[in-house]
Amino acid sequence: MSLPALPRDWNKSESFKAVASFTTPEKLAAEPVGPGFLGHARRILRNRTFSEDERLEAERNVKAIETADNDYESEPEDADMLRHDPKDWKSLDQYEVLGLTKYRWRADEDLIRKAHRRKVLKHHPDKKAAEGAGDEDGFFKCIQKAFETLVDPSKRRQWDSVDPKANVPVPSKKTKGDFFERWGKFFEAESRFSTKQPVPQLGDLNSTKAEVDAFYSFWRRFDSWRSFEWLDEDVPDDSSNRDNKRYIEKKNKALRAKHKKDDTARLIKAIDLALSEDPRHRMFKDADKAAKAQKKWEREAGSREAAEKKAAEEQAKADAEAKAKADAEANKDAKEAAKKAKEAAKSAKKKHKRTLRNAIKDVNYLLPEGEQPSPDTVANALADVDNLIEALDDMELADYAGKLSPLTADSVKAAFTEGVQAKGIKPKFFL
Amino acid sequence: MSKTIIGLSFGNTSSSVAIMKDGVLEVIANQDGDRAIPTMLSYAHGDEYYGAQAKQQLVRNPKNTVAFFRDFLANSYAKIDVSANHRSAHPVEDSEKLVAFKVVDGESEHTVSVNEIVVRYLKQLHTAANDYIGKEIDGSVIAVPTNFSEQQRKLVAELAEKAGLPALQVINEPTAALLAHVSRPDIDAHANKLFVVADFGGTRSDGAVIAYNGGIFTILATMHDLELGGRDLDEAIIEHLAKEFEKEYKVDPRKEERAMAKLAHEAELIKKTLSNSTTTQFGIESVASGFDFSGSLNRLRFEMVGRSAFTRIGDFVKHLVAKANVDVLDVDEVLLVGGTSWVPKVSSVVSGLFDSERTVIRSPNTDTKAIDPDELIARGAAIQASLVSNFDAEEIAESLQPVVTNGPHLAKPIGVKTAEGVTEILAINTLIPIRKTISIPAEGDVLIEIVEIEREIKVETVKPEPKAAGEDEESDWSDDEDEEYEVRSRVVKPGKTLAQLGITANGKADIVVTISKDLKMQVAARSGSEHVAGTV
Ligand SMILES: Nc1ncnc2c1ncn2[C@@H]1O[C@H](COP(=O)(O)OP(=O)(O)OP(=O)(O)O)[C@@H](O)[C@H]1O
């Protein structure tokens, strides 16, 4: 197909010749459907020609893209992240993958969709292939995974729960700034886990007592959706090993519960700490005290006498109390002395018992030195000794212990033989 | 945040919902896993069922199952055709002479207006769509047949709003189907084409001839046969089964409603199976007088028993083309829509009407990439939904005004003469204003002659060449080979000259033809740094 040559008689000075108008068109109804019609309607309604419309629409598109792009800055992409194994996508920072580290949990769904679109445009495998970069689409897969995670509210919560970069640590004394600077950020970050929104924030020195009370009471009853599924170990989906599967599921469940418990404890501790450091508390207390003192002083000024009387009464009462206290103290001393005596007696008794029990052994069961007593001998002798100790009261114990001094075979024999007879014990050894 | 707008195909037999999400078009599956959801409601034990679950009740609980009600909207009882309703709840006349159904919903019998039935059904679709999308739905674009009146369209929109699906726009079914088709990634959305859209549904057949030029759809003709659809194929199979049953057991199942309901249920299954395989087995328990009934049916048999319906389908398309005042050779593509278009015989009957070298038939049996025919309308509606979702009601209403939609369309194609003949630039039935650019190879001083194009259908009678003696002897049973036959061809040639331009070309010339609102035609040509232009 080609255009024919100009005829010889064509007047070259005249490059355009209008010959006839086209056949009268027919009025018909166009279907108000499809992108083509949308363009037509726009041109008719805004009275634009094709080229005007094209220019204006192009400008509008550029603007739309610009505003979309100016919504947020693009972030540099870490080279390691781009090479990350897509199978291990869970270990990536999901916000970093979409370039939203400045926003994290603050990014709304629109922003996430926009960020996703932008990343897809940049990393689409087709585009990479066109650029001759080979068909590595590992990072593209990570982009899709991150998008799926962040655009699905329940999956996003799982990730947000463990997003390490979003955590603001509990401020220590060393953290820079005043109380509000140190704690404000902490509570703002923790707010994201609240099922109830909006969450009351820390406020400042101008907050009223009611506000501060409401703040602490809300946080004491904090209802958190934070959960720890993200950290689950992957449950193998091979059906051959059911036990193992069940085991891992159980383990995951237990770990989630533990993390949750720890997290609750962590928050409670933090709230207590904040409360103890909160300068407004002392302020409110001082103000309270001052107000009370003021009231009291006014009351007293009004009734000095009554106050004086009361003071006298109080003095009398104090004296009485002091006396009672002194009495009580004296009483206590006596008791203590008795207790001491008792304890001494107790320990003496113990000592005497020990002396009696050890005596027979110390004199080698009345046998010549170096001779081995038979087991029967030992058993019989000890039985007599025990029976005797059992039968003696405290005084007698001291008495008999005295008789064993000096400790000789004779003194032992004499003392025990006398003892068993006196107490009517049937002797086995001290016959 | 952009709004969530669904596309809704609200059929007399079945309905579908689609949504465009992040540039991906999805047809919604309901809790039964259905994408083509039967347009039916059923009441049993105080519960309301819809879709396939309602359809199942047709055997056990036909009196409380409401089906084929959409077309009764805004119609007086006196005017409606109830022939599709004899195996389900029967329509009754309500106090306003409109249509209602008597059903036992809950404890007692109620007369429920068709409007209320529609609201209840759309509410069910709303819930299904909500569950699927997981998001509150803000509105809908609803497709209805081209012969729905303004009053019916308004009513549909009103009822949809009551069901929580306010309609941003009510559009025509064939246009929706075509929008889905031309949006296919493998189809050039800028090519000018003449389409035949034929929708063979359950109870009715609808057709439209649509010009698609410069991205604009213009309906040139429509046709409706409200007594032709998949139901006729079902009935043919039912009758066949009934005959066979009677032969085998000497019992006439036609006398028992329940027996017929069972046969009807099985017949549709058989029909659908035969769209995929050439033969199928069936088994029905206790059809009549306690007799079980089993057997098999093959596709050929089905095509024989359904012959009259297939013939009517062919005639329907033939008449549709004729009604648009075009020739079959003018048609670039035929888009087959509706559940019945799954039937292979439907595609082959339609294909037989067209020149296979000239016209492409789009159906699952002829085009492997064809969109499922029972999803086309919902998909198109969803595409439109995504296009208008950012407009407010006023903006949409503004663009629907006649000053926008009603416009002059070219009565003759416009083209440029070439060394070989003529090349089309603007097709017949192109909406004005329009602008179109083409590039043509050219070298040296060339003439650009803009002309109207005349197209002619040439009919030649061809006599087969006499066969060499002896060759024919054994095969004279095929004597029609010797008969004369017609060869029809479509010829285009330059007609009236509109403008001439001379240009010194250098490889190729770009020609831009622009026709403005006030019907002025501007022609501009460019080649390298050369530039010529003028207005007629
Ligand atoms: N695979 C299939 N093979 C054959 N027929 C099928 C198949 N799937 C659905 N059908 C038939 O398609 C018909 C339903 O068509 P569709 O889903 O287009 O309904 P519709 O547009 O609501 O119909 P109408 O409005 O004409 O009543 C039913 O008769 C059904 O039996």
UniProtKB/TrEMBL annotation, chain A:
GO terms for molecular function: Hsp70 protein binding; ribosome binding. Keywords: Chaperone, Cytoplasm. It is found in: Cytoplasm. The keyword Heme does not apply. One of its GO terms (cellular component) is cytosol. CDD domains: DnaJ (cd06257), zuotin_NTD (cd23953). Residues 61-85, 290-354 are annotated as: Disordered. Residues 68-79 have a biased composition (Acidic residues). The keyword Mitochondrion does not apply. InterPro entries: DnaJ_domain, J_dom_sf, RAC_head, RAC_head_sf, ZUO1-like_ZHD, Zuotin/DnaJC2, Zuotin_N. Residues 93-163 form the J domain. It comes from the Eukaryota. GO terms for biological process: 'de novo' cotranslational protein folding; regulation of translational fidelity. Residues 290-346 have a biased composition (Basic and acidic residues). PROSITE patterns: DNAJ_2. This is Zuotin. It comes from Wickerhamiella sorbophila.
From TrEMBL, chain B:
One of its GO terms (cellular component) is cytosol. Keywords: ATP-binding, Nucleotide-binding. It comes from the Eukaryota. Residues 471-485 have a biased composition (Acidic residues). Residues 462-487 are annotated as: Disordered. GO terms for molecular function: ATP binding; ATP-dependent protein folding chaperone. The keyword ATP-binding applies. Belongs to the heat shock protein 70 family. PANTHER family: HEAT SHOCK PROTEIN PDR13 (PTHR45639:SF32), HSC70CB, ISOFORM G-RELATED (PTHR45639). This is Ribosome-associated complex subunit SSZ1.
